[in-house]
Design brief:
529 residues, mainly alpha, Glycosyltransferase, two-stranded antiparallel sheet, 20 helices, Terpenoid_cyclase/PrenylTrfase, SQ_cyclase_C, magnesium ion binding, terpene synthase activity, Squalene cyclase C-terminal domain-containing protein
Length: 529
């Protein structure tokens, strides 16, 4: 399938990253410089009040406690900063109760959030000073925090060229205000993070930082902000990659200007980052950019991935504590498109060993950038498909066990969902997983795919719960919609025309709207938390 026109909406015209409570609360906590008893951004503070969940928490729709507890702490710090009325008291008591009831679940969840071991103790201290009562056992990450900070040379702690700048709010009262000036980027932000930028403004005034936060607020009507902005390159690359996994090919996968910028960066020996304003290349964006360009026929050398090579695997960024299985899957997928050499074969073999060793229960994968194993497992199956000899046997063995898990965990209505509910996004990954392993298909797979497509069509226009990992969970709408569109590409042309997740949805046909493909309600599933 060749795409003549771009598959991606303009990220500037259609902001992809949904707003979140964690960063919005940091912005809401900023005092007005002229009247410090009042908030600088009152609409943000009101948004925080309005988005407390019935159970007392803040955060994503799926109760992933790393996200809920960090977001709740951030929100409690904001609402106690300015108000002491009955509404605030009720909100604090409810949020406080949630933390006491759920803090014990942190150790049971499969992956942490970005910078969690650094941010939790800072927010815990901040909330306690505001009068919030918290369990003494909440911070179980003291040793991880020590190890993380020990990895980063002290002279780089305030460097804008190290990823820790994105989570700089972790410094709290220990910040060296005199060194803060060095961390601000040209776009006025600190690490393209509204939260880190708000922390910066707590310590020193900056009109450029205020302008950056205003631009972030404008993305969602002036009241809330996303966890990262801007990230237009990431948005375009990963939307295109999902279309690529669905079978789309051709230069229309990316805008011409993006193709030119990517080629120029790679030709200069540079990696690719999430945005033109984000000066920190990463292995994920670099690998996917290389793969897409190679698939379009451009000459791309594998050298751009060399800075990310480690002992037996590839790292996302320098100074990371945990390797990403997803990054290594995407590097593997990219290596398939590179010329066959002995060095390439050695790298493929090392990645296969890494992937075999990083499976959960020796069966499926979960990645540090997404809480659902269906995301990582679908991407793994795409990377494992069609590997050259002598690697195909090992790849097929890894794929068979993962495929069995995908098949056996599909719900009766055709959906997939690892936590307490099925989602269209995870169902799309289930479809892509089965499609990329057609050589290992079983007789019932076509029926499973039909059920899944029916479920996806029944979810037209539905909101997607946050499953992607940052400092909190978030939803990159364009990327998620691209995954769903890609899953539907294998359906008949009639079915694909029934739904377009990237644009304004068309009404469902009458026979489907009457219940032909609707999902049934269900109880919680027993996935590992």
């Amino acid at each position: 399938m060749t795409y003549e026109g771009t598959t991606n909406p303009d990220p500037a015209a259609h902001p992809s990253i949904a707003s979140c409570a964690y960063d919005t609360a940091w912005v809401a906590s900023l005092p007005d410089p002229d009247r410090p008893e009042r908030p600088r951004f009152p609409a943000a503070l009101e948004w925080v009040f309005e988005h407390q969940r019935p159970d007392g928490s803040w955060g994503g729709e799926i109760a992933y406690e790393h996200d809920r507890i960090l977001s709740t702490l951030s929100a409690l710090c904001a609402i106690t900063r300015f108000k002491g009325d009955a509404r605030t008291t009720r909100a604090v008591e409810s949020g406080q109760r949630y933390i006491w009831q759920h803090a014990h679940a942190l150790s049971r969840e499969p992956v942490e959030l970005v910078g969690f071991e650094l941010l939790l103790p800072t927010l815990q201290s901040r909330a306690a000073r505001a009068g919030v009562r918290l369990p003494s056992y909440l911070d179980i990450y003291a040793e991880q925090r020590r190890r993380k900070l020990a990895m980063i040379p002290s002279d780089l702690l305030y460097s804008p060229k190290v990823t820790i700048v994105h989570s700089l709010e972790f410094l709290g009262d220990e910040v060296d205000v005199d060194r803060l000036a060095s961390v601000q980027w040209e776009n006025g932000s600190v690490g393209s993070s509204p939260a880190a930028t708000a922390f910066f403004l707590h310590k020193r005034e900056s009109e450029a930082a205020v302008d950056y936060l205003r631009r972030c607020l404008e993305l969602d009507g002036g009241a809330a902000v996303p966890v990262v902005h801007p990230c237009e390159t990431y948005d375009l690359l990963w939307s295109a990659y999902h279309h690529f996994l669905g079978g789309a090919r051709g230069p229309g996968l990316l805008p011409e200007a993006t193709i030119s910028a990517l080629r120029a960066a790679l030709d200069a020996g540079e990696g690719i980052s999430a945005s033109a304003t984000f000066p920190l290349p990463d292995a994920d964006d670099t690998a996917v950019a290389m793969l897409l360009l190679r698939s379009m026929g451009y000459d791309v050398k594998p050298d751009a991935l060399s800075p990310f090579e480690r002992d037996g695997h590839y790292a996302s960024y320098p100074y990371e504590r945990h390797a990403s299985s997803g990054v290594n899957m995407h590097v593997l997928d990219t290596l398939k498109w590179m010329p066959s050499t002995q060095e390439r074969d050695m790298k493929i073999g090392r990645i296969l060993t890494f992937l075999a060793d990083t499976r959960t229960h020796g069966t499926y994968w979960i990645d540090k950038w997404h809480i659902s194993p269906y995301y990582a497992t679908a991407h793994a199956l795409a990377a494992l498909a069609d590997l050259p000899e002598p690697h195909s046997h090992v790849a097929d063995e890894l794929a068979r066990t993962a495929l069995d898990w995908v098949r056996q965990t599909q719900n009766a209505d055709g959906s997939w969902g690892f936590y307490d509910r099925p989602t269209a996004e995870e169902t799309a990954y289930g479809v892509l997983a089965l499609r990329h392993a057609r050589r290992l298909a079983l007789p019932g797979d076509d029926w499973r795919l039909e059920l899944a497509v029916d479920y996806l069509l029944s979810q037209q226009g539905a909101e997607h719960p946050p499953l992607w990992i940052e400092k909190c969970l978030y939803t990159p709408r364009n990327i998620v919609n691209a995954a769903i569109d890609a899953a539907l590409q294998g359906a008949s042309r009639r079915r694909v025309s029934e739904v377009r997740f990237l644009g304004t949805p068309d009404p469902l046909p009458r026979e489907l709207a009457a219940g032909g493909g609707s999902a049934r309600k269900r109880g919680p599933r027993g996935g590992r938390r």
